[in-house]
Amino acid sequence: MKVLCSAVLSLEAIVVLLAIPIATTNGSVENTALAVWLGFGIALLLLLTVGLLRRPWGITVGWVLQVVVLAIGFFVPAMFIVGGIFAALWFVSIWQGLRIDAIKAERAAQAPPVV
Hints:
- The radius of gyration is 18 Å and the shape is elongated.
- It is built from four helices and no strands.
- By secondary structure, the protein is mainly α.
- It has helices at about 1-25, 30-50, 60-70, 80-110.
């Protein structure tokens, strides 16, 4: 599960970084410096969360960041769509990751012991 979730968060950080120039030039943001700092901050949090996935609460932090990325849509409306796509990818990566982990555990339990 960690591999899928870390891939989603890493790609999402890249997309947030690419959204910074759009946010600063589309005219919906009054303070461009604030938009740049918030964009870099959110991207940094996304990348730091990749390391937190080892902890049990790392998935919860990832969900919170999905909401934050969706909230960027109030400043850059296209981010509603992009954030929705990444939230769906986040859900699927958790769901499929848990499924894959269960299959691995089942196979490990069925394997003969190594002497």
